[in-house]
Amino acid sequence: MRFNEKELVSLSRQPSEMAAELGMRGPKKGDVVKRRLVKLIVNFLFYFRTDEEEPVGALLLEQCRVEKEDSQTFSIAFLDEAERKYVFECDTEEQCKEWIDSIIKASYEFMRRNLIYYRTEIHRLTGKDPLEQYGISDETRFQVSNGQQLKPRDTSSL
Protein backbone atom coordinates (compact mmCIF):
# COMPACT_ATOMS: atom_id res chain seq x y z
CA MET A 1 0.00 0.00 0.00
CA ARG A 2 1.26 3.46 -0.81
CA PHE A 3 1.01 6.22 1.74
CA ASN A 4 2.31 9.68 2.38
CA GLU A 5 4.44 9.65 5.53
CA LYS A 6 3.55 13.24 6.49
CA GLU A 7 -0.16 12.49 6.21
CA LEU A 8 0.22 9.38 8.37
CA VAL A 9 2.09 11.35 11.04
CA SER A 10 -0.64 13.99 10.90
CA LEU A 11 -3.32 11.29 11.24
CA SER A 12 -1.46 9.82 14.23
CA ARG A 13 -1.94 13.13 16.06
CA GLN A 14 -5.73 13.10 15.68
CA PRO A 15 -7.97 12.17 18.61
CA SER A 16 -8.00 8.41 19.07
CA GLU A 17 -10.85 5.98 19.65
CA MET A 18 -8.59 4.17 22.13
CA ALA A 19 -5.10 4.72 23.46
CA ALA A 20 -3.03 2.95 26.09
CA GLU A 21 0.45 1.77 26.91
CA LEU A 22 0.58 -1.92 26.00
CA GLY A 23 3.26 -4.52 25.74
CA MET A 24 3.92 -5.17 22.04
CA ARG A 25 5.92 -7.83 20.24
CA GLY A 26 6.52 -7.53 16.51
CA PRO A 27 6.21 -10.31 13.96
CA LYS A 28 9.92 -11.08 13.55
CA LYS A 29 11.40 -14.14 15.21
CA GLY A 30 13.25 -13.10 18.32
CA ASP A 31 11.26 -9.90 18.83
CA VAL A 32 10.81 -9.14 22.50
CA VAL A 33 7.90 -7.43 24.22
CA LYS A 34 8.38 -3.66 24.41
CA ARG A 35 6.17 -1.10 26.10
CA ARG A 36 4.49 1.04 23.43
CA LEU A 37 1.83 3.73 23.39
CA VAL A 38 -0.80 2.22 21.09
CA LYS A 39 -3.48 4.43 19.51
CA LEU A 40 -6.46 3.36 17.43
CA ILE A 41 -7.39 6.11 14.98
CA VAL A 42 -10.03 5.33 12.36
CA ASN A 43 -8.74 2.03 10.90
CA PHE A 44 -5.06 2.48 11.78
CA LEU A 45 -3.30 1.16 14.85
CA PHE A 46 -0.35 3.46 15.53
CA TYR A 47 2.39 2.53 17.96
CA PHE A 48 4.87 4.91 19.55
CA ARG A 49 7.86 4.71 21.82
CA THR A 50 6.49 5.96 25.13
CA ASP A 51 8.75 9.04 25.10
CA GLU A 52 8.31 10.12 21.45
CA GLU A 53 5.62 11.99 19.53
CA GLU A 54 6.07 10.40 16.11
CA PRO A 55 4.89 6.83 15.57
CA VAL A 56 7.35 3.99 15.21
CA GLY A 57 4.86 2.30 12.92
CA ALA A 58 1.24 1.85 11.93
CA LEU A 59 -0.94 -1.13 11.06
CA LEU A 60 -3.78 -0.69 8.58
CA LEU A 61 -6.55 -2.78 10.11
CA GLU A 62 -7.91 -4.31 6.91
CA GLN A 63 -7.75 -7.93 5.82
CA CYS A 64 -6.58 -8.94 9.28
CA ARG A 65 -7.60 -11.35 12.00
CA VAL A 66 -7.69 -10.35 15.66
CA GLU A 67 -7.48 -13.21 18.16
CA LYS A 68 -7.40 -13.50 21.91
CA GLU A 69 -4.21 -15.35 22.87
CA ASP A 70 -4.90 -15.56 26.60
CA SER A 71 -6.81 -13.52 29.19
CA GLN A 72 -4.68 -10.38 28.76
CA THR A 73 -3.09 -10.87 25.34
CA PHE A 74 -4.36 -10.54 21.78
CA SER A 75 -2.74 -10.80 18.38
CA ILE A 76 -3.23 -9.30 14.94
CA ALA A 77 -2.30 -11.28 11.84
CA PHE A 78 -2.87 -10.22 8.25
CA LEU A 79 -4.58 -12.63 5.88
CA ASP A 80 -1.82 -12.46 3.26
CA GLU A 81 0.88 -13.11 5.90
CA ALA A 82 -0.90 -15.25 8.49
CA GLU A 83 2.34 -16.64 9.92
CA ARG A 84 3.45 -13.13 10.95
CA LYS A 85 1.54 -11.73 13.88
CA TYR A 86 1.79 -8.78 16.22
CA VAL A 87 1.11 -9.58 19.87
CA PHE A 88 -0.23 -7.06 22.39
CA GLU A 89 -0.25 -7.50 26.16
CA CYS A 90 -2.88 -5.60 28.15
CA ASP A 91 -2.99 -4.80 31.86
CA THR A 92 -6.37 -6.47 32.45
CA GLU A 93 -8.70 -8.98 30.80
CA GLU A 94 -11.33 -6.24 30.41
CA GLN A 95 -8.87 -3.97 28.62
CA CYS A 96 -7.95 -6.84 26.29
CA LYS A 97 -11.63 -7.41 25.39
CA GLU A 98 -12.11 -3.67 24.74
CA TRP A 99 -9.12 -3.55 22.38
CA ILE A 100 -10.24 -6.64 20.46
CA ASP A 101 -13.78 -5.31 20.07
CA SER A 102 -12.61 -1.84 19.00
CA ILE A 103 -10.10 -3.18 16.48
CA ILE A 104 -12.67 -5.48 14.90
CA LYS A 105 -15.15 -2.60 14.60
CA ALA A 106 -12.53 -0.25 13.11
CA SER A 107 -12.19 -2.02 9.77
CA TYR A 108 -13.83 -0.75 6.62
CA GLU A 109 -15.10 -4.26 5.95
CA PHE A 110 -16.95 -4.37 9.30
CA MET A 111 -18.58 -0.99 8.64
CA ARG A 112 -19.48 -2.02 5.08
CA ARG A 113 -21.16 -5.24 6.27
CA ASN A 114 -23.13 -3.28 8.88
CA LEU A 115 -24.27 -0.74 6.30
CA ILE A 116 -25.45 -3.50 3.98
CA TYR A 117 -27.19 -5.37 6.80
CA TYR A 118 -29.06 -2.33 8.15
CA ARG A 119 -29.90 -1.04 4.69
CA THR A 120 -31.37 -4.44 3.82
CA GLU A 121 -33.32 -4.63 7.10
CA ILE A 122 -34.81 -1.15 6.65
CA HIS A 123 -35.75 -2.01 3.06
CA ARG A 124 -37.35 -5.25 4.21
CA LEU A 125 -39.36 -3.52 6.95
CA THR A 126 -40.41 -0.38 5.06
CA GLY A 127 -40.21 -1.37 1.40
CA LYS A 128 -37.99 1.68 0.80
CA ASP A 129 -34.27 1.98 0.30
CA PRO A 130 -33.10 4.34 3.09
CA LEU A 131 -30.32 5.79 0.94
CA GLU A 132 -32.61 6.96 -1.88
CA GLN A 133 -33.48 10.11 0.07
CA TYR A 134 -29.82 11.09 -0.30
CA GLY A 135 -29.80 10.59 -4.06
CA ILE A 136 -28.15 7.20 -3.75
CA SER A 137 -30.15 4.71 -5.77
CA ASP A 138 -29.69 1.99 -8.40
CA GLU A 139 -26.26 3.29 -9.34
CA THR A 140 -24.86 2.56 -5.92
CA ARG A 141 -22.21 -0.05 -5.41
CA PHE A 142 -24.35 -2.32 -3.25
CA GLN A 143 -27.84 -3.02 -4.42
CA VAL A 144 -30.81 -4.05 -2.35
CA SER A 145 -33.35 -6.11 -4.25
CA ASN A 146 -36.58 -7.25 -2.61
CA GLY A 147 -35.09 -6.52 0.81
CA GLN A 148 -33.21 -9.83 0.91
CA GLN A 149 -30.43 -10.14 -1.63
CA LEU A 150 -27.42 -7.86 -2.14
CA LYS A 151 -25.59 -7.58 -5.45
CA PRO A 152 -22.33 -5.73 -6.01
CA ARG A 153 -22.32 -3.36 -8.95
CA ASP A 154 -20.44 -4.53 -12.05
CA THR A 155 -17.23 -2.49 -12.05
CA SER A 156 -15.71 -4.03 -15.17
CA SER A 157 -16.76 -1.05 -17.28
CA LEU A 158 -15.16 1.51 -14.94
TrEMBL record:
Q: Which SMART domains match?
A: PH (SM00233)
Q: Which GO terms describe its biological process?
A: endosome organization; receptor recycling; retrograde transport, endosome to Golgi
Give the domain of life: Eukaryota
Gene Ontology cellular-component annotations: cytosol; early endosome; recycling endosome; trans-Golgi network
Q: Where is the signal peptide?
A: none
Q: Which residues form the PH domain?
A: 15-108
Q: Which Pfam families match?
A: PH
Coiled-coil annotation reads none
What name goes with this protein? Pleckstrin homology domain-containing family J member 1
Organism per entry = Austrofundulus limnaeus (Annual killifish)
> Could you read off the lineage of the organism from its UniProt record?
Eukaryota, Metazoa, Chordata, Craniata, Vertebrata
